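User: I'm putting together a small comparison set for a docking exercise, and I want a reference complex before I start. The sequence is below, and the ligand is pyrrole-2-carboxylate. Could you produce the 3D structure with the ligand included, as structure tokens?
Assistant: Of course. I'll restate your input first, then give the structure tokens for the complex.
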Amino acid sequence: MQKLQVIDSHTAGEPTRVVIGGGPDLGSGTVAERLANLRDEHDWLRRAVVLEPRGSDVMVGALLLEPSSADATCGVIYFNNVGYLQMCGHGTIGVVETLRHLGRLKSRQVKLETCVGDVTAGIDEDGSVTLRNVPSYRKGEPWKLEVPGYGKFEVEVAWGGNWFLLIEDHGMKLELSRVGELTAFSLAALKAAHALGATEIDHVELGSCGKAVGADGQNFVLCPGGAYDRSPCGTGTSAKLACLYAHGKLVEGQIWTQAGILGTSFRGRIAMEEGHLIPYITGRAYVTAESTLNLQPDDPFVYGIGALPTTSSFQMEA
Ligand code: PYC
């Protein structure tokens, strides 16, 4: 029977399941090449790790790899209920906390290879992790998007390691009790943006003032696969910082506290380095379990339940 060793954690409420042993040999090459191999030849691993009954729609998986350069700690591939993520901010904080928990860090500084470039992270005195993300930017100017059934909204598109459609003036309250409405609106907006050819966008970020939760901003982030991010989303916070900078509302070094829908928060700031806007995101992760996943060949759901009428199929219709 095949077995996978995993460590579970959550970062500001959003879970990460790190696969530390038992995965397939993906050969050598860049993380992007090994991701293509995992996706094309071994997608069973993603399904077994994050789908029900072992996982759930909200679970993000992270497969650790041997690094391809000597100065990197490891490579990492992120995945979720419907496929592969290019980067993951909360997941990176979870991976670093997992490596610390396992005693695998030689110093408080970590360099991880991802399929969109190297990211570095440092463990702070209080146990939080500060991630130096990939260069981020807003794509073009804000524009008006007609969302059928809802109206016309000013939107922005930004890269923070994943592609985000950001909407601030949506007129909806960002409250946990309204997750159904927020999800339905986000899916409709995503569908409208895709219909206009912006098919690279895979996350929607609804923003609002964060005063009620003691932050500068609050967000609701819908992930590919239809689950909402329980954390303020590391790549989403990076995209937001890039938009704030483009509006002249954030300067280098200024701290921006970004709360998510649960009211948990990340601290963000930007630095201009070699002409690029680099987001620094600080958050805290907690290890919640160390387990072995058993993959019994006669289990009808050994590779997960793929056809439940969950938010995943909801997303596919969008
Ligand atoms: O923190 O970047 C993030 C993220 C992406 C999807 C879920 N979390």
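Confidence is low (pLDDT under 50) at residues 307-318. DSSP finds six helices and 17 strands in the chain.
User: Thanks, that's exactly what I needed.
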